[in-house]
Amino acid sequence: MALPNLNNFGETTINKIATKAFETQVTQARELSVNVKVNRQNLRKGILESLEINGEGLIMKRGLSLEQMNINLYEIGVNPLKALMGNVQLTKPSEGNACIILTEKDICTALNIGYLNGITSNYDVSVNNQPIHIKFENIHCNILADHRIMITAEVLLQETNSIERISLSFKPIICDQGNGVLLDNLDYLEGKELSPIIIDAFTSQICDVFNLDHFVIDGISLQVNSLDFSGGMLKVSALAGISHFPMGNK
User: Fold this and answer.
1) Which residues of 190-217 are buried (b: 16+ CB within 10 A; e: fewer)?
2) Cα–Cα distance, 26 to 28 (Å, whole number)
3) Phi, psi at residue 123, to the nearest 5°?
4) How far apart are the first and last CA of the chain?
5) pLDDT tens digit string along 166-208?
6) Do 190 and 208 touch, CB atoms closer than 8 A?
């Protein structure tokens, strides 16, 4: 079957389709660009040259904020007939690389105070063997020069109107399969005498923040190969793969 004439079909059309697809994965962005390189001869063979996604100041669909995200994918196999009809359907997985940067502020934002207070409000919390109502007030994060991260939460003990602090440090490491970041050498510096419910809720949410599911785009997988720490930022470098364009709606 002969393909329709591609002279008027190229990067502009494909880019509109790709941009619309990937915008569904972001709820807010200071800057977001999606750029697909198309060679008409290769498109006839069902190949897109490359796909580049660049974003700054992002809040992802699952709530995690990112200072920067760069994803580059190459030689993406597509169904050319479906692409001509506005449906960029991948015919095989393609690979590339990705870089994601988190700031201290990004990590604090991801540690949702409202969520933590919702968890603790469902349980009877005791402090020094006394029942008490607690409320998370503020969360601070410091990315340290020794590749550790320190997170401190201020907790209001409502009955006494006093503030307790929970402070812990840990070293993010890449799990063996590269599909996540684990918290190694977890050390509680303050607050470990507080209720286990408070400690567990706080630690659990920190683990969730570093779960790659929270900043992976639908259809794109990441395999982390390095973590770099500098200037109050955590840089995650990874191999990237794409199996399909995002299908979620905004």
Assistant:
1) ebeebbebbbebbbebbebbbebeebbb
2) 6
3) -130, 155
4) 36
5) 999 999 998 876 667 888 998 999 888 877 888 888 888 888 8
6) no
Per-residue pLDDT, averaged over 42-52, amounts to 89
pLDDT at 102: 92
Of 136, 134, 140, residue with least CA distance to 169: 140
The alpha helices in 92-244, defined as continuous H runs, are 104-110, 113-120, 196-209
Residues 80 and 169: their CA atoms lie apart, in Å, by 51
d(CA 67, CA 139): 18
Q: CA neighbours within 13 Å on the CB side: how many for 148?
A: 12
Contact call for residues 43 and 73 (beta carbons, < 8 A): no
Instruction: Classify residue 18 by its DSSP letter.
Output: H
133 within 8 A of 124, measured Cβ to Cβ: no
Q: What is the mean pLDDT of residues 238-246?
A: 91
Rg of the Cα trace of the chain?
A: 22
The Cα diameter of the chain in Å comes to: 79
49-58, 74-83, 158-167, 221-230 — most confident range: 49-58
Summary count for the chain: helices (H), strands (E): 6, 12
CB 227 within 8 A of CB 149: no
- Between the alpha carbon of residue 131 and those of residues 104, 134, 158, 160, 195, the distances in Å are 33, 10, 11, 12, 10
With 0-12 CB in 10 A as exposed, 13-18 as middle and 19+ as buried, what is 248? exposed
